[in-house]
Amino acid sequence: MCELFALNAEGPVNTNAYLREFFSHSVNHPHGWGISWRDGDPFDDASVTLVREGRRAIDSDLNWKVLGSPVEKSHVLAHIRYATGTDMAERNCHPFRTVDMTGRQWTLIHNGILFNEGLTFPYEDRTEGETDSERMAAFLTDVMDEAYLRGAKVTFHVRFGALTGAVTQLANRNRVNIILDDGEYTYVHTNTSKCTLFYRSFTDEKGGQAIVVSTTCLGGSAEAQEWKPVPANRLIALRDGRLVRTSAPHGYRFCETILELQRKMGVRPEDYVA
After folding, report:
1. Contact present, 145 and 122 (Cβ < 8 Å)
2. Pseudo-torsion of CA 176, 160, 145, 75, nearest 10°?
3. Burial track 84-94 (b if 16+ CB lie within 10 A, e otherwise)
4. How confident is the chain (274 residues) per 10-residue block, as mean pLDDT?
5. How far is CA 130 from the centre of its chain?
6. 198-203 and 228-229: which strand pairing?
7. Domains of the chain by start residue, with CATH
8. How many CB atoms lie within 10 A of CB 238?
9. What local confidence, expressed as pLDDT, does residue 260 receive?
């Protein structure tokens, strides 16, 4: 499976040490990498920097170039890919960027498999690549647009409510670890039976609050005890380095035993698209 990394902070934080450790895991996740960061107006497409490449991060000159300068931002998403059925190509690498009808810029990274694609399959013709993750990003953007078209005010509470409902639907029979960023808030969801997303809260060198989220606990033994499991079966929202909202739990926890049963039945991970 893929690995995810995110930062949400009160002010710019240098994430290079975390990112170098994170991208070193591409030894076992060799099918592409990507990173996005953002500053300023969440409605300005120029505020989002997106870099993706369809090759192993540790072999990438571009990755070394990106990390050769300080990545000192308040919103960062990063992803390393383990492909399960689609090409090793930039178009299939995360993060994916979408824009809702208000002009708000969204970025998404995903780790999981959609066995039940009823909600996302209609978006097959609206994506550049072939992954279920990109179709999910398109679906979630449509969910936001539908909320606005119903006359809802464009507020955080509306966005959080709409996303909670959508993620709950997506979690039904699917493995859905996602991190979604709207320029103000970072939304995180996991529904696996074993913990596959962790977070760490800390105070940066300038005294600001920050939270990092990762598939694996980073920072070595010095920080090992500071990481906590992301609450399962809930959508959480982060802003300014703080956990500000947690949804009620849903009942769609994905059991990893399902994957084992699929393998015994002869269904391979490559038969799905991630």
Report:
1. no
2. -80
3. bbbeebebbbb
4. 95 97 95 94 93 97 97 97 88 97 97 90 92 96 94 89 97 95 97 95 95 97 95 98 98 78 58 51
5. 17
6. antiparallel
7. 3-271 (3.60.20.10)
8. 27
9. 64
3-state secondary structure string across 210-244: EEEEECCCCCCCCCHHHCEECCCCEEEEEECCEEE
Pairing of strands 242-246, 234-239: antiparallel
SS3 18: helix
Dihedral (C-alpha) 244, 249, 250, 253: value to the nearest 10 degrees? Answer: 100
pLDDT at 115: 86
Longest Cα–Cα distance of the chain, Å, equals 54
What are the structure tokens assigned to 204, written together?
A: 């940066």
Q: What is the DSSP letter of 116?
A: -
Distance CA 140, CA 134 (A): 10
Supply the pLDDT for residue 18: 98
At 26 the three-state DSSP class reads helix
- Show the tokens assigned to 193: 């039976």
Sheet with 96-99, side-by-side order of all strands: 96-99, 105-114, 174-181, 186-190, 234-239, 242-246
How far apart (Å, rounded) are the C-alpha atoms in residues 156 and 167?
16
Strands (E), the chain: 3-14, 33-38, 48-53, 72-80, 96-99, 105-114, 174-181, 186-190, 198-203, 209-214, 228-229, 234-239, 242-246
pTM: 0.94
Q: Which residues contact 19 (CB under 8 A, 6 or more apart)?
A: 5, 35, 67, 71, 76, 78
